[in-house]
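Cross-posted from the bioinformatics board.
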Amino acid sequence: MTASSAEPMFSTPRYATEVSRHTASRRIVVAQQASLATRLLHHPAPTLLLCLGETLPGSVEQESLPSSEALYLRLQMLLEQAQAGTRVYVCGDESFLWHVHRLARQAGLLGDEIELFKQGARRRLYCVHCGHFQDIGSEGECTCGQCRVKLFVREHFSQRLGAYMGVCIDPDSPYAPEVRS
Amino acid sequence: MSAMIEVQVTDVRQLTPVVREFSFRAIDGTLPGFSCGSHVQVILPTEGRTLRNAYSLLGDPRDSGVYRIAVRLQETSRGGSRYLHEQVRVGDRLQIGAPSNLFALHSQARHHILVAGGIGITPFMAYLADLQASDVATPGASFELHYAYRSGLTDAYASELRERLGERFHGYDAAAGQRLDCASLFAGKPLGSHLYVCGPQRLLDELKTLAEAQGWSAGRLHWEAFAAPEPGQPFTVELARSGQRLQVPGDHSLLEALEAAGVEVPNLCRGGVCGQCTTRYLSGEVEHRDHFLDELQRGEALMPCVSRGGCSGTLLLDL
């Protein structure tokens, strides 16, 4: 069977649009922005909302953290204490989703116990030539911020790295022209 | 079908009135290495027909010079366990298949919960060798063993394991009225927990139901249940490509009938779990007895190791 070019690659992530009906003994909702997570909170199991910035009105148990780094650390601490039967729901841009995904997997959650809800266009790119990570938007080409190679953004996505692969777009002229400001 | 290995029985130990342990070594060369949780098919030339029963390898995977299996004498045996118990002696030669593993340790687990019912302890003997070795299969992972048995009958390795495992051993002796409380196995377990079960179908069913209710995803539950194919009604099968017609007696599986007719179908577990022998059928009534195919797949395929044709009409296989 050959895939037509219109079909996404097998490794291109597919994101949830609705919360699954899986039972859980506890739910942790991790959101880049609390207001975007409201639709993830209507579930009977005990739920904790972990978010950046302003909190939500209402009775949901929530913690707001001042930065992404603080939120990642807090999540790691919570997951260390968590028990099997916990499910994690993540809402944010692609870079955020996969960072949280990696933390959750490292803590022992299985892939199907983590549900990802994508917002926005920001995504992570991995330069296969120098190993540098950078955030990009929806563009198909860019320049590596570390080695300055002009990169083609491949559709192939690595779940382990949480990033798309950037490969040299033109081997005859690999580097972007020096821009001096 | 991979080549068979000729082995010689080097030791036979009667562990309980119904459990016998056999050790094999290769007649030529060495036995292939194996990972914990592996099983082998043992060819049993019983009177009237040849059976191929799958048995877990219970020895230490670091020592593949010898294979050990333990066999429970089944009351309603099709003759395989009875043959091993009553006919096979030290020095005898047998044929076995190469090891294959459908029940491996999860490499990323942090905590392993092993649950054995009776003779279901056998794959865990190899697990425990790995888990207790210095070069552990999953570094840093903890484990606990829950072993339900009846003393004086199915407690084959209970005292040895109690001594070896200390407080990680939890025994439940039905003869003393002790019962394994399955629900307690799930309470307060850390995120990286995986549960492995080998034993009777009802134990597996209970654990599956509980796991789901606790929000454990199916990937945390690993199971193996070898059961000989249940007998059924005789039926007729026709092979579409060769035109052969076969009668399958009530006490033979379809796979055995095919093998007896010289039709080799790839197979591993012979117990309806691995999916290896899945075969397409073109028409006819099927009694599906496997634990592998979903409803959609069952519309066009069956697993001949356990599933059977209906007694009215002919089952037409795409073979």
